[in-house]
Amino acid sequence: MGAERVSERLEELFTLGKPPHANRPGLSAAEDRAFARVAAWMEELDMRVERDPAANLVARRPGTDPDLGEVWVGSHLDTVPGGGRYDGTFGVVGALEAVEALGAQPLPRTVAVVAFRDEEGSRFGRSCFGSRALIGRLEPDELSATDASGISVRDALARSGGDPERVSSGWLDPRPACFLETHIEQGPVLERSGLPLGVVSAIVGVAELQVRISGRRGHAGTTPMDARADALVAAAELVDGVRALALSIPDAVATVGRLDAQPGAANVIAELAELSVDLRSPVESDLDELERGVRSLAGEVAERQGCVAEVRRGWRSPPTEMSPAVRDVLAKAVARAGYPIKTLPSGAGHDAAVMAAAGIPSAMLFVRSLSGGVSHSADEHSDRRDLRAAIQVLSVALSRLAA
Ligand code: HGY
Ligand code: MN
Ligand code: MN
Predict the structure, then answer these.
(1) Cα-to-centroid distance, 24 and ligand 1 (Å)
(2) Which of 213, 186, 182 lies closest to 199, judged by CA?
(3) Is the pTM of this model over 0.90?
(4) Region 120-134: what's the mean pLDDT?
(5) Radius of gyration over alpha carbons of the chain, in Å?
(6) Residues 6+ apart with CB under 8 A from 29
(7) How far is Cα of residue 348 from the mean position of the Cα atoms in its chain?
(8) How far is 264 from 235, CA to CA, in rounded Å?
(9) Helical H runs in 70-128?
C-alpha cells in the first residue's frame, strides 16, 4: 500500500507512451490511456468518477454535508516529450493514495481528486488547457490551434471524450473551497537542504510567446552574402538576444525550446523561422519587461537581416501567491509528521496557479527531486520514502480541510 503501490503505478503509467521515457502529449491516445487507468483506480476506491467537457477527470469521495464547498486535490497526467515518471503524475496517483488513507471516517466536505488535461502545452503551444477550461479562461482561438501534424485542439478534444461545444464556457460551479497540488520540486533546493518536503510560497509568472520570422528563400550557392534575407540567421541572433535579456534581469529565465526553419534544406536559404519563447519571472513587472524586450529584439534582428518578425502571445500566467490559510494547513501537517517546514517558490508553472487565479484558495506540497532536481527528463527521480511522507502529509491536510 502507500508509496509502494504509488511507485508501481507511476512505473505502469510511464510505460504507456513509448518507453524509455514518458511520451503522453495533451489530448493524445497515450494521455487517454493514462486517464483510463487512473479512472479505474478511482473506481476501485468507490469514488464517483466524472469526465468534464475538457475531458478532465474528477472523482469524488462524498462528504456528509453536500452544501459545503468541496476540497479538490490533484494535478496532471500528460508529460513533455521524453518526460519522466513523476511530473504531474505523482500529484494524481499520490492524491488517490492520500484519499484512501483517509479511511472510512465521515468528513463534512466532499474530497475530489482531479486529473487535468494537457498541463504541459507541448503539443498545441499553450499550457494548462484542462484547468483553464474549467475556470473559463481558454483563448478565443484555442480550439482551432493545431499540432505539428495539423490536428486541431477541437478534434483532439473530441477524440479524448471532451465536448468542444461546451468546453469554452467554464463550469466552476459549485466552486471548490480550496485546491491542493502535490508535485515534485523539479529543482535542487530540497535536495540541497536535505529535506523531503516543501511548502510552496508562490508560483512563477510565465509568458509563452511564438515568434515567426519571414525572410526570402534562395539558392545557398549562388546568392551573395549581402543579398540575403535569411530567416534562420535572424532567429539565431534572437535566440542569443533572449538569453542575454534574461541574464540582465534578476531571477528571470528565458528559453527558446523549439526552432523550426523552412524549407529546412541544406542548400536553400531559410525563408521562415518559427521559435517558441518561454519567459518566466517571480515579479510581474519583470515579466512585462521580458516580453517587451523580446518583441523589440525580434523586430531589430529581423530588420537587420531584411526579414519581418511577428510575435504572438500564446498564454500568460502572472506570478501567483499561494493561499496563506491553505499553506498553513499544509505546514502544520508537515510539522505534525515531524519534518522541518521549508517554504520555497516554484520556478515551474502548475495548474494550482490557474486555480488560484480563479480565486480558489490553493497551495502546493513539493516532494524532493533527486539528482540535482533534474526534470522534464526520464532521469527525474524521487525517493520512495519521500513519496510516502508526501502522501501522509497530504492525507492529514485533506482531513483537516474537509473537516
Ligand atoms: O513548464 C512548466 O513549468 C510546467 O512543467 N508545465
Ligand atoms: Mn512539467
Ligand atoms: Mn507538472
Answers:
(1) 14
(2) 182
(3) yes
(4) 96
(5) 22
(6) none
(7) 8
(8) 14
(9) 89-100
